[in-house]
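Hello again, I could really use a second opinion on something today. I've been staring at a protein lately and its backbone has me curious. Please have a think about how the structure follows from the sequence. I owe you a coffee for this, so here goes:
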Amino acid sequence: MTFKVSRRFRPKLLSTIALFLLAALFTSLGTWQTNRAAEKLATEQLHLEAKNVSLESALKQKLRFARVDINGQYDPVRHILLDNQVWKGRAGVHVFTPFYTTSGAAILVNRGWLPLAADRKTLPEVPTPLGQTTIKGMLNILPVPGLAVGEADSLLQDQWPQLVTYLNRQDISASTQSKLEDWVIQLAPTDSSGFEGRDWQPVFMSSDRHKAYAFQWFSLTTACLVLWLVISFRKISGKKP
């Protein structure tokens, strides 16, 4: 007498629940990454298609990434230093200086990156052109912190430059005594009034990176389903006449 070994599809309840919950979780994460990729792709396309327009038109139409040439003058004293900016592995700040246009507008200009001393008390010198000048840059939204902990830094009117952990336009307007636009100019890399680190990107994480993460999550979903099928086919032994 011999024994016959066969396989039958008999999934266990506990493993089925566990693996399908994991598959649902991974699918949800993959879908979220896919949606984020679509959003980032739209932003990247907007950046790619941006045109040169006047600042007035860009502000009126809210044209993010518009390339602009602006006549006016920098505030030579009042500089806002945005902390926690890393460039080529070095810690530093982004320098935001108010710029007053000949048409009467006031807007912050991100002039790029400067190093910050290790003691965080010695602030960098911010050389600034005096008098009327023309600057080139790109219109963008104010940088938004990933996680704002606590209230914005209190700004003083008689202490410049000032170091902040994130930007608050209303507080900066009050401290500089000017009504700032709710936008920022990212200074063009070719403009001589800026500093290092002006390789401005439209998004922090590209659409391709989100697509890669989505592929990983969906791959894990597939792995869960394959594993469920494998362990659900159980060996059954029986007598063979």
Observations:
- The first strand starts at residue 2 and ends at 9.
- DSSP finds four helices and nine strands in the chain.
- Residues 2-42+206-240 form one domain.
- The chain has two domains: 2-42+206-240, 66-187.
